[in-house]
Amino acid sequence: MNKTHTLSSDGAPRSDAPIDASDPLRFLTRLAGRGDVVPYDTAYGSVYLINRPELVRHVLQSDNYVRGSMMKMVLGEGLLASEGDYWRRQRQLMQPAFHAQRIAAMGTLMTQAAVETMAGWQKYAGSGRPIDIQTEMVHLTLKIIGKALFNIDFHDELDAVAEAVKTMVADLGRFAGTLFAKTYPVDAERNRRFDAALQTVDDLVHRVIDERRRNSETVGDLFSVLLSHRDKQSGKALNDRQVRDEVVTMLLAGHVTTANMLTWAWYLLSEHRAIEAELHRELSRALGGRLPAARDIPALPYTRMVLQETLRLYPPVWFMSRGAVADDEVGGYQIPANATIVISPYLVHRHPAYWTNPEQFNPERFAPEDMADRPSFAYLPFAAGHHVCIGNHLALLEGQLVLATIAQKYKLRLAPGAVVEPEPALTLRVRDRLPMILEDASRAGTAEGRTTTGPRSDHEEL
Ligand code: HEM
Predict the structure, then answer these.
(1) CA–centroid distance for 128 within its chain
(2) Which residues of 125-147 are buried (b: 16+ CB within 10 A; e: fewer)?
(3) Residue 407's CB: how many other CB atoms inside 10 A?
């Protein structure tokens, strides 16, 4: 048993590290330094942090561990929130929409959306005025997922929906923070804002469902799959609530995470100029200035490695929690029924037993020959086991195409004075904004970038 644990009144070993909800990354990092299974108490019960790949595998592959109900507040019985037979049936129903061929067909609209986003950047290019790349990536990925899965063209509503999602995700993040806190702060005003945000998203989704039900034409998107489905036994269709839950789930899960990935990638590239130069060499070789398409993906391995390494250092889903259904034993620890397990890709991806110089940004780690000896559960940005992300291939395709499209035109440079910090909310986003200046990509300059940043930007230019 790890000596750094103390015994609490129920006789189970506990971490004596003080809980610190204000800085969960630091708190979890300190816990991880104590062992690969570290129990600690919150006001809501016992939590076990699990940090060794084979133990993570055990939890994520076992039916004894289920997701909690927090996400149901927004997603209802959507795929990311449901469990058991209902989840299994819905996964089987939607899985074909994520097959490689279906995803590849979305390539053109992804590239096109990136081109449209850049059209809105023209007044900033060469002006030295920064633009908030985090917001830009959120809007771009929301547009892409709406169009790719549901044939939704966001026009005037884009800002309002993105803002509503931001409010909901921030509040879910506060709930999730109870895993690292002794209390949950009650805040009526925030609850009101949360309800209003949920209503904004629901209004849009119900309007689109109505339109699609009226216009019964089959477009071949995920909407068509959901609306045309009939249960084999009962012959029943999905009701509006069920369709709403899946649409909201895909819209949220399908853009917040992808936006985080791209935001961090731009930041890391701007700080590591040699890696950025290597990326540009690959893009010139493979594309020679033309727009990328899904068929170019095999010729863009370094672009993929940049994204994989970005997801290692800043995994958007930086923690996952599961509840134990029955008593179990994990890594020599007795896990009682109802205990909560926390698995943090952020920590596992920095585990010194599996990663050399874990803090260093080095896409070469994902060269095929280097990946061979690493246990598969040492890298889990998309989770693993039966709840493995259904959108993982879509996200990587989108990331490669967006990166390749934008990087061929612009080099994104961190605005002078900007400080970039991770904010471990529901997903691992950049705190506040990411102010960046657009430079013409054809201009030379391959010096290794800074790795530290100065004081926080006041963003007055944004
Ligand atoms: C970089 C982008 C993405 C990352 C890092 C990511 C990560 C994850 C992770 C870690 C999980 C497992 C969560 C858990 O079990 O607690 C998950 C599940 C899920 N993701 Fe993603 N995701 C990404 C993109 C997407 C996209 C593009 C979509 C949809 C188009 C999507 C839809 C989902 C859904 C529906 C689930 C639930 C799957 C299930 O339980 O069967 N994700 N994702």
Answers:
(1) 30
(2) beeeebbbbbbbbbbbbbbbbbb
(3) 21
Q: What is the pLDDT of residues 229-288, one digit of tens each?
A: 998 888 999 999 999 999 999 999 999 999 999 999 999 999 999 999 999 999 999 999
83-116 pLDDT, tens digit per residue, is 999 999 999 999 999 999 999 999 999 999 999 9
Of the chain, the end-to-end C-alpha distance in Å amounts to: 53
Taking CA atoms, 462 is separated from 55, 121, 153, 170, 255, in Å, by 45, 12, 26, 22, 22
Ligand 1 mutation pick, 85, 322, 389, max ligand atoms within 8 A of CB: 389
Tokens of 342: 């926390």
The answer to whether 443 touches 433, Cβ cutoff 8 Å, is no
The two three-digit tokens of residue 180, written as one number: 């690292």
Query: From the CA of 317, how far away is ligand 1's center (Å)?
Result: 8
Which residues have any ligand 1 atom within 6 Å of their CB?
Answer: 67, 79-80, 91, 145, 249-250, 253-254, 257-258, 261, 316-317, 320, 381-383, 387, 389-391, 394-395
